[in-house]
C-alpha cells in the first residue's frame, strides 16, 4: 500500500516538474508587436 | 503610464579601451560615425519599421559590429547586429509572415476549405528575403499557421539580419517596458548579449528585475554564475552602450 502511494506521488512530482519545465521553455520574450507598441517605442527619449 | 526616458550615462563608468585605440571617447565617436555612414539608411528604415529609436539601433550596431563594414563577421551570428538568423526567423515568424504555401500546398489543393489563406503583410523586410513572399496558410478552425523559411539563409541576407536584430530589440524593449513599466536598456543588454535564459538566471532569480534596482547594481551583479570571459564581454557591453562617452552618450552630446 505504502509503496503504491510512493509511486503515485513520484509520478505526480515528475508530471508537475514536466509541466513547469514546459511552461518555462515556452515563455517568450519576443511577442509580436502591435501598432500601439510601436508608437510607444517611438516615444522613448534619451535625456 | 510607463516612464520612457533613458538617462545617459546610465552607468557611471567609462570603457577601458585597448591601448592601441588611444582615447575611448575618440574611438567611440569614430565608431558611431562609421556606423552612421555605412548603415545609417538601413538602420533608419529599421527604426521606422520597428519603432525603436534610431540612436538606440546605432548604439547596439556599434557594439555588435564595432563599425566594421564586414557583414558576415565571425561565427554563426550574422550581420551588423550579429543575429543568429535561423533562430531569429523562427522566433519572429509571427511578425514576418513571409511564408508560404510551402509543404502544405498539396493539402490545400486537396481540401482548400480546410484552410484560410492569408496574404503576406506588406513589409520592407521582404525585399531582403531569400525567397519571394507568398500566401500564408492557416488551418481552420485551429488558427495554427504553418511554415516559415528557415533554410537558404546565407550571407546575402546580412541586411535582413539587421532588420531581424532591430525587430528582436523592439520586442525585448517592449517586453521590458511591460514588465517594469520603464525602459531598461540594462535588461535589454543582458537579454540581447547573453540571452533570455541568462537574464532569468542572473537577474530575475536574484530579484534584480525591479524598477528600483539601477544599472550599476545590475552591472555589479554580472559575474554571478557567468563564465569569466562572458562576464567580461557583457560588462564591456554595458560600458560601451550606456557608460560615460559610450555610443549613446556621444550621440546625446552631438559628437557623432
How many beta-strand elements of chain A? 1
Order of helices and strands of chain A: HHE
Biggest chain contact: A-B, 17 and 31 residues
Counting DSSP H or I runs of 4 or more residues, the number of helices of chain B is: 11
Write a structural description:
The complex is a heterodimer of chains A (47) and B (256). Chain A is mainly α and 47 residues long. Chain A has two helices and one strand; from the N terminus they run ααβ. In chain A, 9% of the residues are buried. The model of chain A has no long low-confidence stretch (mean pLDDT 83). With 256 residues, chain B is mainly alpha-helical. Chain B has two domains: 169 residues, Lysozyme (Orthogonal Bundle); 47 residues, no CATH class. Helix content of chain B is 49%, strand content 9%. Chain B is built from eleven helices and eight strands. In chain B, strands 5-6-7 form a three-stranded antiparallel β-sheet, with no helix packed on it. In chain B, strands 2-8 form a two-stranded parallel ribbon. In chain B, strands 3-4 form a two-stranded antiparallel ribbon. In chain B, 41% of the residues are buried. At the A-B interface, helix 2 and strand 1 of A face strand 1, helix 6 and helix 11 of B.
Amino acid at each position: 500500500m505504502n509503496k503504491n502511494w510512493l509511486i503515485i506521488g513520484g509520478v505526480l512530482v515528475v508530471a508537475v516538474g514536466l509541466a513547469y519545465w514546459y511552461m518555462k521553455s515556452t515563455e517568450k520574450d519576443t511577442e509580436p508587436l502591435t501598432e500601439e507598441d510601436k508608437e510607444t517605442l517611438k516615444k522613448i527619449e534619451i535625456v | 503610464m510607463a516612464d520612457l526616458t533613458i538617462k545617459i550615462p546610465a552607468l557611471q563608468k567609462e570603457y577601458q579601451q585597448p591601448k592601441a585605440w588611444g582615447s575611448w571617447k575618440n574611438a567611440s565617436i569614430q565608431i558611431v560615425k562609421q556606423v552612421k555612414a555605412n548603415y545609417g539608411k538601413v538602420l533608419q528604415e529599421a527604426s521606422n519599421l520597428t519603432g525603436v529609436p534610431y540612436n538606440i539601433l546605432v548604439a547596439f550596431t556599434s557594439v555588435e559590429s564595432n563599425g566594421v563594414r564586414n557583414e558576415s563577421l565571425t561565427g554563426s551570428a550574422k550581420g551588423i547586429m550579429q543575429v543568429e538568423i535561423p533562430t531569429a526567423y523562427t522566433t519572429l515568424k509571427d511578425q514576418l509572415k513571409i511564408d508560404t504555401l510551402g509543404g502544405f500546398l498539396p493539402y490545400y489543393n486537396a481540401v482548400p476549405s480546410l484552410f484560410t489563406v492569408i496574404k503576406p503583410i506588406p513589409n520592407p523586410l521582404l525585399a531582403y528575403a531569400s525567397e519571394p513572399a507568398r500566401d500564408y496558410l492557416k488551418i481552420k478552425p485551429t488558427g495554427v499557421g504553418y511554415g516559415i523559411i528557415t533554410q537558404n539563409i546565407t550571407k546575402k541576407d546580412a541586411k535582413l539580419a539587421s532588420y531581424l536584430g532591430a525587430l528582436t530589440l523592439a520586442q525585448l524593449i517592449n517586453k521590458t517596458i511591460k514588465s517594469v513599466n520603464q525602459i531598461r536598456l540594462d535588461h535589454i543588454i543582458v537579454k540581447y548579449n547573453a540571452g533570455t535564459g541568462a537574464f532569468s538566471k542572473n537577474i530575475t532569480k536574484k530579484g534584480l528585475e525591479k524598477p528600483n534596482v539601477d544599472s550599476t547594481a545590475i552591472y555589479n551583479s554580472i559575474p554571478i554564475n557567468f563564465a569569466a570571459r562572458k562576464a567580461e564581454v557583457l560588462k564591456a557591453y554595458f560600458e560601451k552602450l550606456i557608460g560615460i562617452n559610450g555610443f549613446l552618450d556621444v550621440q546625446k552630446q552631438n559628437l557623432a
